[in-house]
């Protein structure tokens, strides 16, 4: 097995990973950190508010930043602080949540924060529904990930990438902006991130493809309910 490129479960084995050039490992780690799943709500919200020409056209820059800060606090800061506290209290073994057991409480906590974020946005009628739909899709994704985590260690990075491309697909369907370059960029980034996870993590192709599908479908569900 150690002389082959793939292990029995279809994943790159440790020897194969160690043979990767240093530059490949560097960029694999780079993409894994820059496009960490916690950051995806920030990136998508920033795109909707500052890049899309019409969704937030009536908002001042200060108003846009206020909404972005609210999303950042609920979708990034609170889950991150939760993981730090869990590690400090000994409830998880690693900040990187390498095991399925370590991921249970962070998933549940993140679901709470994501639900609150979409609820707070939904209760403000001036907020475009597309952002509410996105955060609702993020909430559904976290719930689906928690269920999937019972059976296998689904890739959180892949779920994030599926959510990003799923939301870009939803925006394309609304015909409010030419989405050729954003969707193409999203697909390229998704490919780079998922390949990176196969190189520097213990995820199998099943973990990656399942995560992409979960993230993408949950955004479609969120849009169908909220839009």
Verbal overview:
It contains nine helices and no strands. It has helices spanning 14-18, 22-34, 40-51, 61-88, 100-122, 129-148, 156-174, 180-200, 205-226. The longest helix is centred in the first third of the chain and has 28 residues, at 61-88. Mean pLDDT is 90; it is low at 1-16.
Number of separate structural domains: 1
Q: What class do helices, strands and sheet pairing give?
A: mainly alpha
What proportion of the residues is helical, as a percent range? over 70%
Per DSSP E runs of 2 or more residues, the count of β-strands stands at 0
Shape: globular
Using only C-alpha atoms, the radius of gyration works out to: 18 Å
Tell me about the biggest sheet?
A: none
Euclidean distance between termini CA atoms: 50 Å
- Any low-confidence stretches, pLDDT <50, length ≥5? 1-16
Number of helices: 9
Relevant terms:
disordered N terminus, 9 helices, 227 residues, globular, mainly alpha, 72% helix
């Amino acid at each position: 097995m150690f002389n082959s490129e793939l292990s029995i479960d279809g994943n790159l084995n440790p020897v194969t990973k160690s043979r990767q050039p240093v530059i490949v490992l560097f960029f694999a780690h780079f993409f894994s950190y820059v496009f960490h799943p916690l950051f995806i709500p920030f990136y998508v919200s920033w795109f909707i508010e500052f890049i899309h020409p019409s969704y937030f056209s009536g908002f001042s820059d200060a108003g846009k930043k206020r909404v972005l800060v609210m999303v950042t606090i609920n979708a990034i800061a609170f889950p991150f602080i939760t993981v730090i506290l869990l590690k400090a209290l000994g409830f998880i073994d690693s900040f990187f949540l390498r095991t399925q057991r370590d991921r249970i409480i962070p998933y549940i906590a993140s679901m709470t924060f994501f639900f609150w974020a979409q609820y707070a946005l939904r209760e403000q009628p001036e907020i475009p529904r597309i952002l509410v739909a996105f955060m609702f899709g993020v909430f559904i994704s976290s719930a689906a990930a928690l269920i999937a985590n019972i059976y296998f260690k689904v890739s959180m990075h892949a779920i994030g990438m599926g959510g990003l491309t799923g939301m870009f697909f939803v925006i394309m369907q609304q015909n409010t902006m030419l989405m050729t370059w954003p969707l193409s960029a999203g697909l390229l980034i998704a490919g780079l991130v998922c390949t990176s996870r196969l190189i520097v993590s213990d995820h199998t192709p099943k973990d990656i493809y399942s995560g992409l599908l979960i993230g993408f479908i949950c955004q479609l569900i969120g849009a169908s309910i909220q839009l």
